[in-house]
Amino acid sequence: MAVRDYFSFETIRDHEKNVICYYITMIGTIEGDGIVHMRTDLGKDNNEKMAFGRVTLHNLDRKIGLLLKETGSRVYYHYHDELNGSTDVVSFTAKDWRADEAYEFEEGDRVLVQGRAYLRKADPERFPNRLPELSVTVSGLFRLGRARRPQHHFLNEALVPQK
Predict the structure, then answer these.
(1) For a pLDDT cut of 90, what percent of the chain falls above it?
(2) How many CB atoms lie within 10 A of CB 106?
(3) Fewest beta carbons within 10 Å, which of 15, 85, 111, 145?
(4) Is the pLDDT of residue 37 over 80?
């Protein structure tokens, strides 16, 4: 059975119907290029910590694309292949005790990440026409399990030795 990724967003509006924020829920895999790294030198006194990572989602480009169109942004990485479908990599950041939890994630972990959407602008000198990147500021994250790794079958494993 193949693993199923999940992505949804909810638009939070005020009483005048203005958009306040977008709340995102996604289930995906931490892959090699999305391993969580930690910074512990943030804040006024250089004692705050923050974790940065990326979740890989497969075949959800329509749902993600709807949010990207609405916000005028992009994800960290998007790739579409006619044979295998699409792959989207979405960045996330976790602060304080959530950073410690996120830092324990390993490559291949299936994770659920929830939080508010944040748009990070690109450096205008280096990337003058680049759209801002959509990132999730984590309010909840959970390790759901380990992704299955393919087991290698050897050619002679079914042979039974003779007596």
Answers:
(1) 29
(2) 10
(3) 15
(4) yes
Q: Distance between CA 97 and CA 49 in Å, rounded?
A: 9
pTM: 0.80
Closest CA to 29 of 4, 61, 65: 4
Q: How much is the CA Rg of the chain, to the nearest whole Å?
A: 19
* 106: Cβ contacts below 8 Å, ≥ 6 apart: 30, 35
Query: Can you say how many angstroms the Cα of residue 113 is from the centroid of all Cα atoms in its chain?
Result: 7
Output the CA torsion sign for 117, 108, 32, 58. Answer: negative
Paired tokens of 127: 């990337």
Please list the alpha-helical segments (H only) found in the chain. Answer: 61-71, 97-103
Residue 12 clears pLDDT 60, i.e. is over it: yes
As a whole number of angstroms, the distance between CA 53 and CA 30 comes to 8
Number of C-beta neighbours around residue 12 at 10 A: 11
pLDDT (tens digit per residue) in 80-105: 888 888 899 999 999 988 888 999 88
**Do 75 and 68 touch, CB atoms closer than 8 A?**
yes
